[in-house]
């Protein structure tokens, strides 16, 4: 319950600060914190105005919008977005983040980039100094199925270890839990989770570009120099805002 309260706190604070009557096109992220963003939007009556539309970052996000009675916008119709709010798996001091725990990072990054303002909402577990500190599962990388084996090899040559000390899997193709075979993204692609040593995680922008250039990589779960602000709900009921 402490984590859920922290998620709610972060979400409510971000909506109150960044979603106003003047914002008409709003991007809704994915994951378990974003439902609280939608709760707040509904509570503030911001769904009532039918010319306010909400754009989804994937199947879960779309269902969230529809079930909350928000007006679902067609992503193709809106090249510009006023504000997108999304969760993250970990955030560092410079507001760089690891995303893709939910395998939604491609569409999330499209709506993050298209937004005038992109805001992260997260509980205290995500608040780090350096990426890779709390999120040790590795960087989520969306790859075309045809290329996944080659990308695994290339990532290994870049220094991603096949095993990590904390017992979590090292460099690996993300396999389904209640599904035989690999996880398949909303775009029909596979996800590779690639941990990297701290010295590489200290420069996420450089790592992002090196990974993105590998043939077969569709999108990388590193969001660098994109967030306007990050809201972390804390266990003691306070909110940490980093901008
Ligand atoms: O996959 C993602 O990037 C999602 O935004 C997700 O990982 C956010 O995490 P949450 O479920 O803790 O909000």
TrEMBL record:
Q: Which GO terms describe its molecular function?
A: ribose-5-phosphate isomerase activity
GO biological process: one example: D-ribose metabolic process
* Residue window of the full protein shown: 52 to 294 of 322
Q: What is its EC number?
A: 5.3.1.6
Any one GO CC term of this protein is:
cytoplasm
According to UniProt, this protein's pathway is:
Carbohydrate degradation; pentose phosphate pathway; D-ribose 5-phosphate from D-ribulose 5-phosphate (non-oxidative stage): step 1/1
Source organism's superkingdom? Answer: Eukaryota
Q: State the UniProt keywords alphabetically.
A: Isomerase
Q: Which family is annotated?
A: Belongs to the ribose 5-phosphate isomerase family.
- What is the official name of this protein in its record? Ribose-5-phosphate isomerase
Q: What class of enzyme is it?
A: isomerase
Q: What is the catalytic activity of this protein?
A: aldehydo-D-ribose 5-phosphate = D-ribulose 5-phosphate
